[in-house]
Description:
single chain, alpha/beta, seven-stranded parallel sheet, six-stranded parallel sheet, 13 strands, 12% strand, binds adenosine-5'-diphosphate, binds magnesium ion
Amino acid sequence: xxxxxxxxxETMTPxxxxxxxxxxALLRNLIDQVLNRLNGEMLQEYVPESLLNKHGFxxxxxxxxxxxxxxxxxxxxQLEQCRHPAQQRMIFEELLAHQLSLMSxxxxxxxxxxxxxxxxxxxxDVFKQRLDFDLTPAxxxxxxxxxxxxxxxxxxxxxxxxxxxxxxxVVAACAVLAALGSKKQAAIMAPTEILAEQLxxxxxxxxxxxxxxxxxxxxxxxxxxSKLEAIKQAKVHVIVGTHALFQGDVEFNELSLIIVxxxxxxxxxxxxxxxxxxxxxxxxxxxxxxxxxxIPRSLAMxxxxxxxxxxxxxxxxxxxxxxxxxxxxxRRQEVLGRVAGACASGEQAYWVCTxxxxxxxxxxxxxxxxxxxxxxxxxxxxxxxxxxxMKQQQKNTVxxxxxxxxxxxxxxxxxxxxxxxxxxxxLMVIENAERLGLAQLHQLRGRVxxxxxxxxxxxxxxxxxxxxxxxxxxxxxxxSSGFVIAQKDLEMxxxxxxxxxxxxxxxxxxxxxxxxDESWLNEVSSASRYILQNHPDRVRPLIRRWLGRAxxxxxx
Length: 556
Ligand code: ADP
Ligand code: MG
């Protein structure tokens, strides 16, 4: 704030964020004109008086006045930290609008009907006996929560959160089992073809392979037609795929359950679009959204206010934390020696090329070059390569060969970030680790440490690395808890990065900042419920004021 000017005026003079070519004086003048023209509707107070009083907030008109013409006795420090009641009130209202938007989506969906999918417990027992491990108590708990939801005639809308390797797939399978028990279809959507393929394999093992189909963008022509036909005729009930699942020509036959794996890769819209595909006889499918992004609870409550929340909070026993080291690129030679040593003793390793280049084509080229350099340096090893531009068939072959143990070292771009499950792989090297987010590094690291062997992860950075960069990587060395990492990532980078840019519609707020204003989140969610109950007529205008007419969540 321009305090010099304030000394001679009755109020302080605001200094606005500069826009190129627009001077402060002009901006002030324009804003004053706008303020003078604000009409009744624009200044209409939608926050109930009881809430204003409870928090000592000024009303909207007073708040706007105060923000644009702050009185001289105001605390600058308070203003700078957005702690002035006028600012807090705007923050509160914005958070409220976002929350109400998601809650009204939820209300609308919950009013719809779904086909109840009760599961006979003996069927569940038979299924459990087919597994080659015992379910952990954490898995049993969330399975019970899900089965309870599925037995109802109201659509399940549940988020299942579980760290990488916590065993979400088998939980999803139990939900699928419930759909199969009622002879209805279930669709499982994964963000990449490799992951879809792997889920498909799991389901083929656990259910009748004849009852499962895999549908991805790679299916063309007659093959695709015959798969679509099988889906439409209900010759298959377990339908696994990528986003190809909600393309126009896919017709389901009594789709009763949708599972979205690794939700952070999809936008809110995509999952809701699939829901509408599943409409039949006046019902919509149950929805289970799975994510490995460990979101702090307060943030989850806000970002997924439309969903119930289950969490697998413990890994299967016997897993050893991956020991992580941070080394400079200059020690590449040592790292190569380590890879050679591991492979010589029958272990397998990943070499992850992070995406230094902007374009996918260049990234893949870089990975190709890395692979051939590694082959020169380590001629005795069998080295494979996977990247996003390879044909699905090729990718599958390489990943299969790696699984079979025919490949010692798999060079990959971050396409392997999600899902790939090769327990014998016990070493991972990540190049340019400093360029990735902590959550993403944690995901990558989750590819090792799946077997009984002690696994290791080498985070290689290119020098020089800033102090802050070192601190970030050190967090990974110090903890293997996805939750701790997520919390740190959140503090260091903000929620947009954590949740993935694609679904940050919610997080792009004008005044509020979900991290800074975290202490409001609980209050905002109870205030939202209060408004929905007692002032339903204010919900639309509030959403409209802050999110615009194209209410991002409500529209779908
Ligand atoms: P994520 O939650 O990351 O999707 P997955 O479902 O892929 O994890 O499971 C990771 C690995 O752990 C798989 O190999 C799976 O078979 C195994 N697994 C799952 N549940 C258990 C369990 N209760 N005990 C032992 N291993 C398990
Ligand atoms: Mg998974």
